[in-house]
Every structure is written in structure tokens, then in C-alpha cells.
Amino acid sequence: MAKKAVILVSGGLDSTTVVAMAKSQGYDCYTLSFDYGQRHRSELVAAQKISELMTVHAHKVVKLDLGSIGGSALTDSSIEVPETETTGIPVTYVPARNTVFLSIALGWAEVLGANDIFLGVNAVDYSGYPDCRPEYIKAFETMANLATKAAVEGQKLTIHAPLIDLTKGQIVEAGMALGVDYSNTVSCYQANLEGEACGKCESCRLRRQGFEQAGIKDPTRYQKNA
After folding, report:
1. Residue 132 is labelled as binding a ligand
2. What is the 3-state secondary structure (H, E, C) of the chain?
3. Could you tell me the domains of the chain?
4. Residue 125 has what pLDDT?
5. Any idea which positions bind ATP (predicted)?
6. Binding site annotation covers 19?
7. pLDDT at position 226, please?
8. What pLDDT, on the 0 to 100 scale, is given for residue 191?
9. What's the confidence (pLDDT) of residue 78?
10. 11 annotated as belonging to a binding site for a ligand
11. Does 88 show up as a binding residue in the annotation?
12. Residue 88: per-residue pLDDT
């Protein structure tokens, strides 16, 4: 019987690559997305489409309202998404997002009898978010193995972050080698309802840089004014 894995998917380049990696390792994949009040809601459509195209065992969307606490340009429309490089932790950081997402993934994994959770965090070409660091992933895994009935009964849970030490170019190369079609992914922080990217936000800049590093033609669909 194949091992089961819960995979956090946003519809973007990184998480789609992670699904391909998990599948290549023989996991039965269960993808999990969050409708958390994000302004770039076309990512949910992309996550659904990608999950279907990659024939995962199940795709679940959990509705949260992180917009009710705000504090991020991704959940509060009064905070503008920066279109130039910034210093420090950017306003696109969503407070506690990965902790909330991983906690729900942990619950679903326990229900499914899955001992593995995958996510696409990256600590090289990334925006400086504190919950994308290796020490954070390690700390959450430690907590997870203290917090669940499954772990207490001997079913150790592992958090996999296979992209954490890769550049964006290396991520693109890895995905291409596994047959990922990046034209279906949406990474932009302010994509329109059709999933077309702005081409100006930090996520768009990092994504474009990744294709350039990999020497791959950028398949991203951009808005006309991008």
C-alpha cells in the first residue's frame, strides 16, 4: 500500500513542483488549499485545476478568515502590494499563516493515517518570511510529534520541505524534469480573476527570475499592462 501525504498547495510554482516530487516518490497525494481571504483568489482555481491534472487522490479547500485580523497586504485591501524591492520582512507576510495551515494539514494527516506533510517553502529566493526558515519547519515537526494521538502511538510525522535550499531556477529545473506544466500555475500576489499576473510584485519578479536562471521560456500569462 502506498504511503499517504498531505500537500499544501497554493496553485503556484513552488507547491506544484512539490506535488510532482511527492508523486515521483510514490506517495498517494492529498492536496490542501485555503480560502483565507486572500486578494489573489485565482490561485484557488489554479490549485483545483492542478490537483485534477496531477490526479491526486483528493483535494480539499478549507475556508478561513485571516482577513478578519488583517495585518498583510494579501488579506487587507487597504495595504498596497509593493511593486518595488523592499527591505526587511515585507507587508505581504501573513501573520501566522504557515502555522495555521500546517496545523490543519496535521489534523487531516492524522485523520487520513498519513505520516507525511509536504509544503513548498523556500529559504533562498524568497521574501524573508520567518515561517519559511528551516528552523521553523524543524520546530513545527517537533511540536506535531508531541501534539497528536498518532505520534504518541508511534506513528511519527515528518514535515517535508524539499525546496527549502533551492534557488528559483533550481526549482523550475526540478519541476520541468518531472513534467510540470507551469502555464497552469498562478504565483502573482495580485493576479486578476483570469489568473493573469501583474508582472510587478515580488512574487512575479522571483518567478520570472527562476525561469531566466533555468533558461526556460516563461509560460506565465501576464496582464496587458504588465
Report:
1. no
2. CCCEEEEECCCCHHHHHHHHHHHHCCCEEEEEEEECCCCCCHHHHHHHHHHHHCCCCEEEEEECCHHHCCCCCCCCCCCCCCCCCCCCCCCCCCCCHHHHHHHHHHHHHHHHCCCEEECCCCCCCCCCCHHHCHHHHHHHHHHHHHHCHHHHCCCCCEEECCCCCCCHHHHHHHHHHCCCCHHHCCCCCCCCCCCCECCCCHHHHHHHHHHHHHCCCCCCCECCCC
3. 4-214 (3.40.50.620)
4. 65
5. 9-19
6. yes
7. 66
8. 95
9. 93
10. yes
11. no
12. 86
Residues in the chain, overall count: 226
Residue with cell 527549502: 164
> What single letter denotes the amino acid at residue 166?
L
Question: Is residue 14 annotated as involved in ligand binding?
Answer: yes
All cell numbers assigned to 190: 495580485
Task: Flag whether 18 is marked binding.
Answer: yes
Taking phi over 0 as left and psi of -120 to 50 as alpha, with beta for the rest, 26 belongs to: left
Q: Is 15 annotated as a binding residue?
A: yes
Average pLDDT by consecutive 10-residue portion of the chain (226 residues)? 94 97 98 94 95 97 95 93 86 94 98 97 82 95 96 96 96 97 95 94 94 96 86
